[in-house]
UniProtKB/TrEMBL annotation:
It comes from the Bacteria. The lineage of its organism: Bacteria, Bacillati, Actinomycetota, Actinomycetes, Pseudonocardiales. It holds the Pfam family Pribosyltran. This is ComF family protein. It comes from Pseudonocardia broussonetiae. Belongs to the ComF/GntX family. Residues 158-198 form the Phosphoribosyltransferase domain.
Length: 203
């Protein structure tokens, strides 16, 4: 439960107002559709810039687990109804250990907390050998994940439930495409994806 405590100040700049000070809140660009080929309908909370980027980096790389709550609240605004199965995108095991746990799973659980009909099913895994994607171009990201995303445990969607992938950042779409492919091989259709930050065009 300690992960679900609101931050004492603004998620981005630390000003006294929580979860976002007026200045940072005014710079949140709002949700939009991400247009990349081969992806299911994908909704991003905002661009990978400004207060959203700052808050994500504080949460992801600097141990600010309390920021999962305001970030997840933004993500949960994209949930149009229930039932929904949220499937976190897989993380490299070494990266998750370095961060004290899987930050995407934590984010998905915070987004689902208290929402009837929404469950988190972390069934995707990433095989050994996948490199850190930072600095890779789109083709390299695709090659890096080819054959490495797999379904670790059977996912049996509930009747009428949407299966939505969850990730923190979409850049080239390689992770989401690999996840869709892994589920397709397992006979499961992915209905859409929710991401915090749209960084398309950055690689």
């Amino acid at each position: 439960m300690t992960d679900l405590v609101l931050p004492a100040g603004c998620a981005a700049c630390g000003a006294p107002e929580a979860p976002w000070c007026p200045a940072c809140a005014s710079l949140l660009t709002g949700p939009h559709r991400v247009g990349l080929p081969g992806l299911p309908p994908t909704l991003a909370v905002g661009r990978y810039a400004g207060p959203l980027r700052t808050a994500l980096l504080r949460y992801k790389e600097r141990g600010r687990r309390d920021l999962a709550v305001p970030l997840a609240a933004l993500l949960a605004a994209g949930l149009s109804g229930a039932p929904v199965d949220l499937v976190p995108a897989p993380s490299r095991a070494a990266a998750a250990r370095a961060r004290g746990g899987d930050h995407v799973v934590r984010l998905a659980r915070a987004a689902a907390a208290g929402r009837a009909g929404v469950r988190v099913v972390p069934v995707l895994g990433l095989a050994r050998g996948a490199a850190d994607s930072v600095g890779l171009d789109a083709a390299q990201r695709t090659a890096n994940l080819r054959g490495r995303v797999h379904v670790r445990a059977p996912l049996r969607p509930r009747p009428g439930a949407d299966v939505l992938l969850v990730d923190d950042v979409v850049t080239s779409g390689a992770t989401l495409r690999a996840a869709v492919g892994a589920f397709a091989a397992a006979g499961v259709r992915v209905d859409g994806a929710l991401v915090l930050c749209d960084a398309t065009g950055a690689c």
